[in-house]
Amino acid sequence: MRALLEHPEYARRYAAAQRTLHNVLRTLIQRADYETMTTRPGWDYLAQIAGVSRRTIARALKSFQDWGLLGIVASGRSAQYATKGPDGERTNEAAVYVLCTPSPLAIVETAGSGNVDEFGTPPAVGGSHLKNLKETHTRARETNLEGPATPAENTLGGSAASAHQTPYRPELNWPTHKTTASKKQRLAAASELRRRIFLLRPMSTKDVASSVRDFLIAGWTVADLHHALDFQPNGSPWPYSGIPSSDYAPRLRGWMRTRLAAWRTHTGEPLRSRDQRSDAQALERRAQAARNTARLLQERAERATRVGQDSPAKIVALAQIRALRQK
Length: 327
What we know:
Shape: elongated
CATH topology of the largest domain: Arc Repressor Mutant, subunit A
Structural class: mainly alpha
Order of helices and strands: HHHEEHHEEHHHHHHHHH
Radius of gyration: 36 Å
Helix content: 40-55%
Oligomer: single chain
Number of strands: 4
CATH architecture of the largest domain: Orthogonal Bundle
Mean pLDDT: 76
Strand content: under 5%
Strand order of the largest sheet: 1-2-4-3
Number of helices: 14
């Protein structure tokens, strides 16, 4: 934050622009992992906290990058250019940034950076000193080599020589708002969650599936899990630092279980997820609309019945009219 306040370009901005830059950088710092100084809050979260538009967030992040205060570890992916999932929807992936502090660079003199020895004889220009060079026996033998080259020997030795090469395994895709009904589907949902949250990659798909197993069995979706890792049950974002940028899978597993613990009851059962709450509210709205429609139809039917019958006032009025005509 001090690097921003002391930057000359920051001093040239208006007060409103300075407040926006200050709020955006403060949010990036609050959501950062202080061991690696990486942060991934997402543009929607930054816009919500700073109270500005996404275009303003983009300009602020660009300014931080130009001033040497922010670097990109992994670029995000816009839903506009993302591949459609099996459910036909496109989703965004948050970018991963690293917080930086600019420092002045100095030119370091190396051994070869000095002047050329004035007593040395430089080579001829254009390689003319090589025209009359005769090939030695070794050079001639190398020129006439034929056939495949001999495989190079492994000079590393030890465990590096016998390192296991992990085969390529394509990631499983699963619709974001679809529930699971089997172990294979839960594994696919865990793979989708791991793909969407970049910093969960050190964990295996089975490890992620084990951490969220009871939530998936309770009817949660990938979107529900992603939301629960970013927001609390009351809808407010987590006030702590973001996901730790670590290659240690047990630490990431503990972080996931800590965040998801807030979405459990006092007996340990998963709460209703965001999608489940939305579905219940939509069902209640449809039921209320059906009740309102039925009530209106009943009122119209009763009104039509009353108008079709001769009321006492109508009978009296007709009798008065007939009496007037007979006179």
